[in-house]
Amino acid sequence: MRPSLLQYLKLILLLALGGVTTMHVPKQDVPLSLEALTLDGHFSFHDVSAAAQDFGNMSSFPPVAVLHPGSVADIATTIRHVFLMGEHSALTVAARGHGHSLYGQSQAAEGIVISMESLQSNRMRVNPGESPYVDASGGELWINVLHETLKYGLAPKSWTDYLHLTVGGTLSNAGVSGQTFRHGPQISNVNELEIVTGRGDVITCSPEQNSDLFHAALGGLGQFGIITRARIPLEPAPKMVRWIRVLYLDFASFTEDQEMLISAEKTFDYIEGFVIINRTGILNNWRSSFNPQDPMRASQFESDGKVLFCLEMTKNFNPDEADVMEQVSQPLALCH
Ligand SMILES: Cc1cc2nc3c(=O)[nH]c(=O)nc-3n(C[C@H](O)[C@H](O)[C@H](O)COP(=O)(O)OP(=O)(O)OC[C@H]3O[C@@H](n4cnc5c(N)ncnc54)[C@H](O)[C@@H]3O)c2cc1C
């Protein structure tokens, strides 16, 4: 629906008088007031249904507008505009990364959703120096961070299992995977953040600079500002990796072994444990490291429909250590 002439006149009046203090924007005039902002990107007002969905598929709250920012300044301008509407405005703002939340966390009912993936725009920069790091946009997917850093033989230290999640999305939560026992979650592996605050200020923060904001935003569920850039420390990427899975029928042995491995020095570089609900065909599962053609091993996995437990581990090594690695890991690849 196109705004009427009267609505345009009301908006011009609002912007002219609103000035420095807060300005009241009636709900029906919000789209018009957003349209009047000068941006590098743009707002969508009609095609907003995707922003009302997430991976969980349990909540659906359509926003009034989706911002596709062309720059960090667009996010700052929009948030400042909402801030200036004052505390009586019910308009909410939510950043949306890859929308893999389960309960609508990246949605904003009748508010503004900021589509962070629009912000990827060539902002990734790898510094391969003595203490290497990458500067990545908050809307960048971790898979892209990996591909870019691998060009320099480098990689972040702490991961999620699934890499089609955004930097801002996982840093607003925790970001855990099989490296967490060694390096901590992803939020413990950040040097610096650039954040657009609730007032629309763009602030750089780190453990040394604006540290309250830094620590609040990490794991802050998007409530302390929008992460527009993160500086992630890097380490040399492994050249080769040995991937091992061990199946257990007995929960006590499974947890005992897992605790022993994560507390011992110099064991694996990645350790995860999970439960497998035993269905037919687990040996052919794409994640299985067991060779279904091997009848000796396959016969050990008959479990009559019982729940199985699995330890998954990896060990990084150099090509010249391949023989040693074979000797060390072979006894582990057996069923317990
Ligand atoms: C298939 C699948 C696999 C997963 N695997 C793992 C895993 O291995 N390890 C793990 O730890 N988690 C995992 N998760 C959970 C996932 O990390 C979180 O749901 C994460 O928040 C999703 O990232 P996203 O980019 O989709 O963020 P979204 O779902 O879009 O957003 C998540 C939250 O962060 C906020 N947010 C998003 N971007 C920003 C930003 N730039 N600044 C501030 N706030 C922001 C949103 O407002 C929202 O509150 C998985 C989820 C799914 C669905």
Automatic annotation (TrEMBL):
It comes from the Eukaryota. Residues 58-237 form the FAD-binding PCMH-type domain. GO terms for molecular function: cytokinin dehydrogenase activity; FAD binding. It catalyses: N(6)-dimethylallyladenine + A + H2O = 3-methyl-2-butenal + adenine + AH2. Its cofactor is FAD. Keywords: FAD, Flavoprotein, Glycoprotein, Oxidoreductase, Signal. Residues 1-22 form the signal peptide. One of its GO terms (biological process) is cytokinin metabolic process. It is found in: Secreted, Extracellular space. One of its GO terms (cellular component) is extracellular region. Pfam families: Cytokin-bind (PF09265), FAD_binding_4 (PF01565). Coiled coil: none annotated. PROSITE patterns: FAD_PCMH, OX2_COVAL_FAD. Its EC number is 1.5.99.12. Monomer. Belongs to the oxygen-dependent FAD-linked oxidoreductase family. This is cytokinin dehydrogenase.
